[in-house]
Amino acid sequence: ENYEYTNLMQKLNAAQQEAVRATEGYVRVIAGAGSGKTRALSHRFAFLVNELGILPGNILCVTFTNKSANEMRQRIHSLTGDNDTGYINTFHGFCVSVLQEDSYAAGYPKSFLVLDNSDIDAMLQIIYEERGLTLRDMTFSMARDMIEIQKLFKRPEYYRDMIALPLEALKEKYDAAARAEDIIFFGYLYQEKKCFGLDYNDLIKFTLHIFKEREDIRLKWQQRLEYIMIDEFQDIDALQYELMEALCAWHRNLFVVGDPDQTIYTWRGADGRFLMDFAAKFPGTQTVMMMENYRSTPEILAVANSLIEKNKYRIRKELLPRRTGGAPVVCHFADTQEGEAKWICEEIRRLQAEGVDYADITLLYRAHYVTRAIEQVFLEEKIPYTIYSGVQFFDRMEIKDALSYLRMIAYKDDLSFRRIVNAPKRNMGKRRLAFLEEYATQHGVTLYQALTETLDDSIFKGTKAGQFVSLIEHYAAGYEDRPVSEILSAILNESGYEKMLRTEGSQERLDNVAELKQSVYEYETTCGEEVSLPHYLAHVALFTNADGAEAKGKVKLMTVHAAKGLEFSTVFLCGMNEGIFPSRKVRTKEAMEEERRLAFVAMTRARNRLYLSRGAGRNFDGSPQYPSRFILDIDPHLFHYTKEPRAELIKEAREYIGYSQKYMPEKESDVTFSIGQRVRHAVFGDGTVTDVDRDKGAHVVQFDNIKTPRSISFRAKLEKI
Ligand code: ATP
Ligand code: MG
């Protein structure tokens, strides 16, 4: 494709052109939703490459999700016509690239494993079995959260153990642990090191560690990355910020874009102040503002503006529509959740009759459970849909199995071995696996190694263990020179895995596997960096729900968080009830403002049509559920109500909301005490806070006169002493 400078610039307004041309130094774009920030960013990439002759491999472009990284890669590919797209990735994905080159500096091999949730669960399974823990002690998802909190906040230096201690020393720590929390945490570190596995937190921590300890490596990356660009900068967290600072310190060409009204990840440590304080931190920063919105109709923007205005802590900025008149924003109050779902169905049918494609319709919601009623009706009404969360594409059994075959070839790790040694059936059941576990522990080898060493043992008579080993050995011997897509097709065929799916008659699984093959192929053709098997495996673990194959001809369902940065022609924002959206977990005014920003993000995803809906219902305690304050926030003249809501209901809802708002503390530090704080309880007396459990909403307090610690709800009065 022939590229022309005027062509590129013609697609941009004056502010965007300014952002594109300002290539040197520190540049910050602050602008509202849909104002063309991401567009400016991708065109700037093309400008650097096409106009200035910068090599894509010397540009780092950080996106917030893998989905947006993929989209960006494709855009850059079409703008530059170049196959080499450089480093377009999430922070985590970029860290994988660094570690694939330099993990040796932390004593890890190139073939480290990137762990995803199901890998972590497989490790937890082992730990729970070994130490007699049950899900009552802690569910897996709680355990994963606990591990993350330990790594981020409570033991931020944990990675030093992973790097410095030999495996036996980690095992000793695990053996010595007594509390469930410690057993799980140290057991997990041990399991991780055992297979050289790294989870998302480790990726960032290890990279930072290497940059700190090894100036030569840091310098190499600093010099390589001549230009750095970061999208969605309002949601950067402290560790990512540290990484960014380290990387840009040499060339000092840093370009960030963000919208303070779209900060929605502070609960995970994001900090919008990094965007606001950017100019003070980097003197000489050039700031570009963009005021015009290209995405949405004026009707949709008026609604979104009317909502976000209600936030107290914000810099006023209004989105000005570029587009002219569209359809009114529709608001529907149903009597039940089923009623809400049915109405959405009818509306979708109506749109379809008007020629709207299913794929142009997206349902957004605050939390997964909202989809239950909707899915039921969709199934009955035969409306095709895909959920971009819930069971994730890359979490599906057949996808994990297929990837495990690839991992077996490259890493021969225990996690993959357990998954596939008996899929398809090779007569390698529990008893034989236990035999291998035993042997592996005794000899300090992997399960696969154990199998190769004991293949002649009588226990494997009548099994297909030998075939399995030959298969793996055959592929392991020559994978370096073959494209990943080819290896994948070949091994799924030869191993009999696909045949197994065929005999099971699971067409859906076969389709998913075909989809995976296609996605590998696409990845190979647009990735930029050389795609070897280890490269692919390290990056694929970062793919999550939102990155699954694009669903054609289906309505999309996803959470608002997953929709960040994306846009859709028609959006249904459903489940708009108090206690759902805003979530009942919101306890402070500060958190309520973040929740409102989240609703703002949801509404500003819509290009042409926006629908808001709710179904009345009851809370667990029997009290009525009220319509969301985020609907009541909006000037009612901006809506088209399908049916005027009862005045009484609105009045009651306002009273309820006013009351809850009045007694809401300003910020988290007003509700919670920090660990170590001395407190007084009306009945239990004085004590010390030993933990803060935000999920349960309680302080754990060791009272002076009670032996064991107690969890005290945030609602109960504890006095500072
Ligand atoms: P968000 O804050 O939601 O991430 P954004 O600021 O990144 O939004 P983009 O996604 O870049 O906005 O752009 C929004 C829409 O407007 C896209 O469809 C884009 O193609 C279109 N757009 C952006 N700039 C222009 C322009 N100068 N002319 C025409 N269309 C534009
Ligand atoms: Mg964007």
TrEMBL record:
GO terms for molecular function: 3'-5' DNA helicase activity; ATP binding; ATP hydrolysis activity; DNA binding. Residues 10-297 form the UvrD-like helicase ATP-binding domain. One of its GO terms (cellular component) is cytosol. The keyword ATP-binding applies. InterPro entries: DExx_box_DNA_helicase_dom_sf (IPR013986), DNA_helicase_UvrD-like_C (IPR014017), DNA_helicase_UvrD/REP (IPR000212), P-loop_NTPase (IPR027417), UvrD-like_ATP-bd (IPR014016). ATP binds at A31, G32, A33, G34, S35, G36, K37, T38. Belongs to the helicase family. UvrD subfamily. PANTHER family: ATP-DEPENDENT DNA HELICASE SRS2, UVRD / RECB / PCRA DNA HELICASE FAMILY MEMBER. This is DNA 3'-5' helicase.
